[in-house]
C-alpha cells in the first residue's frame, strides 16, 4: 500500500481492545497498543508481530492527559504517520445509586470520559502536524443508549461519550476528521465477567445466573464475542465509513432499538 495506515488502540491488553488491535493488524494497520500495564500490551504486541503484523506497545494511563499525548507522539514517531485512534479503555463499576461514592465517580469519569477527551485532543494535534485528516473512534456502550440498573456511574460516562462524539464530529468535520462511537452490548470479556459476578452477588445467586440475566434480554439470545465489536471498529477505521460521522452505532445483538 502506498500510504501506511497507523492506528492506536487504548485498553488493548485484554477483551475488546485486544480484539480490536488484532483485527486492525489483520486489516493491514500498523498498530500501537496502549495500556496501563506494559507487560499485558507487550504480550499482545509480540503475538501480532509473530503473526507478521507491525505492532508497538506503549504504557500509558488514559486518565492522565500527558500520558495520552506522549503515547500518540511515540506512535507517530515510531511508525512515521498516524491515522486512527480508538479510545477504547474503560472501567465498569457497578453499584446501586445509594452506594455511589465520590471516589467511584471521579475514578470512572477520569478514565472513561477523560481518556476519550485526551485521546481526541492528542489525535487532532497529530493529524494537524501531519497535515491530513483522520478518524477518532470512541468506545461507548449499549449502556450509553439506555439506562441500566446499578450502572449510574458507568452509564453516565457512556452517555457522555455519545455527546462528546456528536460535539467533536461537528467541530472537526471541516478538518477531514470523522468521529464515531461503537456501542457494544454484553461482551464476553474479563470486565463483563466481573459485572456479572457483582450482579449475581447482589442477588445472592451464582455467577452463571448473572450472565444468564444478561443473555435473556438480547434478541439474538447470545452474548457478544469481542470479534462482533471489532468487526464494527474495522468498518469505522476503513475508508468504507468515510461519509459517516457523529454516530454511535449499536452492536448489541438486539437489546436497544433506536
UniProtKB/TrEMBL annotation:
UniProt-listed GO biological process terms: acetoin catabolic process; bile acid metabolic process
Keyword NAD: yes
Alphabetical list of InterPro entries matching this protein: 23BDH, NAD(P)-bd_dom_sf, Sc_DH/Rdtase_CS, SDR, SDR_fam
Transmembrane segments: none
GO molecular function: diacetyl reductase ((S)-acetoin forming) (NAD+) activity
Active site: 154 (proton acceptor)
Residues given in the record as NAD(+) binding sites: 14-16, 61-62, 88, 154, 158, 184-189
Top-level taxon of the source organism: Bacteria
Reaction catalyzed: (S)-acetoin + NAD(+) = diacetyl + NADH + H(+)
Family: Belongs to the short-chain dehydrogenases/reductases (SDR) family.
PANTHER family xrefs: 3-OXOACYL-(ACYL-CARRIER-PROTEIN) REDUCTASE (PTHR42879), 3-OXOACYL-[ACYL-CARRIER-PROTEIN] REDUCTASE FABG (PTHR42879:SF2)
Functional summary from the UniProt entry: Catalyzes the irreversible reduction of 2,3-butanediol to (S)-acetoin in the presence of NADH.
Official protein name in the record: diacetyl reductase [(S)-acetoin forming]
Organism in which the protein naturally occurs: Nicoliella spurrieriana
